[in-house]
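Minutes, project check-in
Item: structure for the 765-residue chain
Input as provided by the requester:
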Amino acid sequence: MVPSSLTLESTPVFMEKVYELADANGLPSKSFKAALLDFSVSRMKDHLSKVAQFIYWQLGLEYGVNAVITNGRVMLFGDESTILSHDLYLLESVEFKLRVKHVVEIVEEAKWQDIDPDMLTSKFISDVIMFVSSSMAMRERSSESARFEVLSARQSAVLLGTEDSIIHIDAVLDPLSPISQKLSSVLRVLGKYVQPSMRIVLNPMNSLVDIPLKNYYRYVVPTMDDFSSIDDTVNGPKAFFANMPLSKTLTMNLDVPEPWLVEPVIAIHDLDNILLENLGDSRTLQAVFELEALVLTGHCSEKDHDPPRGLQLILGTKTTPHLVDTLVMANLGYWQMKVSPGVWYLQLAPGRSSELYLLEEDGDEIKDQRPLSKRITINDLRGKVVHLGVVKKKGKEHENLLVTSDNDSHLEETKKGTRTSWNSNLLKWASGFIGGSDHLKKSQGTSAEHGKGGRHGKTINIFSIASGHLYERFLKIMILSVLKNCDRPVKFWFIKNYLSPQFKDVIPKMAEEYGFEYELVTYKWPTWLHKQKEKQRIIWAYKILFLDVIFPLSLEKVIFVDADQIVRADMGELYDMDIKGRPLAYTPFCDNNKEMDGYRFWRQGFWKEHLRGRPYHISALYVVDLVKFRETAAGDNLRVFYETLSKDPNSLANLDQDLPNYAQHQVPIFSLPQEWLWCESWCGNSTKTKAKTIDLCNNPMTKEPKLQGARRIVPEWVDLDFEARRFTAKILGEEIDEPQEPVTSLGESQNLITDNSSKEDKSEL
């Protein structure tokens, strides 16, 4: 709809132009000459003027506006715009491809049952297509904001503010959903500072099987109230919990942004077992948390290939290039490292990774002369997600980062019997692991000849996890029992996430006093991995899901020992044991306590069918060959099984135990000799004298409290406990009572101690 720029001096001039256009577009000019014998320019102008006025009025446009109409869609152009024939061809092509083509396909397939067949001409079909396309083009587009006018607000809505407010907020909330706990605080802040009119419609679930909320939640949002109006002090955001139940055991935790690693630094009381009625007259608990570090995450990709799982990355500074390291996971090529604000340099680790790969530079240019590093700047508290591209070096395109092992003894088993599918995941590095920086060489500790306190030989690495003061008490006893039964250097690895401030204050002094090394490690739960909601199940998951990435790459082997375990033998014997090329080694459950036969669920139903003769192992003690674990991608395989099973609430009841047992067809397990783990509930007293470790596993029949069972079952436990408590009291400046005598029978000890903090129903804990 563009006014013509041609000034017609006469009818013949206009007609000649029409004939020229007809010839140029392949139309019969003779037909036009016959039709235009009685043509009048003045009448045509009058007619076009009336048509233009009608169209402007119909479309609501100002007179003289340049526009093009195609299939009901109005395209407006500026006064200076010039429309060429090529523009119209392009518009026609785009309209046909995006809209008209699909309409044509639907219309042509339609069955016209009530239409006279004589009416189904090409003109009729064309008109229908035009009408449908026009209707679609003229349809009002939906706005990005939702419309809540249809919702009733008589009994289920909260109305706030006045109708004169510039901003109006409609919110539909399920009052018993976790997201509403956060949104309610955000709405309060908006209501106070923006002062909108607000309608909050409560929309709960029609029926509930269980109470969806099992916590008291405060969402802390920074506001202007944090800043003093009289000086330059900053109070900071706070969360207050009032009118809490006094007799219920509570746990305190923080829900923080994903990139944050936060830990408590001041907490007098046990944050895992809070009983307000025991806090004295004030009944007030305070805790201070600290932002310890940020998490740098990323995704690594190789063009036209799956993510290079097992690729080793190191991160550091220009002067110290290797401070932290990690592996690339198979899922999304995910990796993460712990960082602080500053400038970091990411590069491929020396060894197999840098021999095969190079980092892609901007512009996809590759330099073969030197290893590349990627500069990463952390300049805020939001963390960073890095997309890392790698490419194979020239001549290395057909080499694998992980290659099939030819000398694994368990390959022979798979050929003899059950599942050849094991073979596809039994892989091996073609070269050794990275040497690492001096920092990591020190942390490895696997080749030390001399340790603290006169210890000598190869370092034994032991890994454990504890949460709450009770299990930290057990953990100190376990440490002492290990040290008293071996003369080799020992290094303990603890997951930092759940340790109390008191334990972190005591463990350095304890390491100095008793001559051992320790290191605190952590790993942020990936956002893409299904997360457990209960804290105890999250702790169980940390025992098994991140073994390939939570330790430095230089660490070759580690033994997991439960915190409530007492060691009676030299752990060096277990550390040096040949586990026949398997990545994991567990002890099978005992079967000589016949009273527990009814609780051995693995001997019937699903587990019996799934195991097919393989033993069901207990997870209180196990050996991890980290070299084999990484090179066979065992961590990726376990996470795949976990992601599949964990979404079913009826699966993985004993998460850290069920998962490796379920996956042992693909992640083979070496069965340790039975004497390496004795548990009264499952083993019976006949084999107790041969026990090299004793685990205080729960008894599903008696449900005896942990402390009570420890005094009764393990004679040396009382002395070890007193020694650990005495040392802790000396460091913290506290006083302790003299040790109690060991309890001789369960009946006599029923009223000696009541421990309500140990609540797990898990069979092996």
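Outcome recorded: DSSP finds 20 helices and 25 strands in the chain.
No further action items on this chain.
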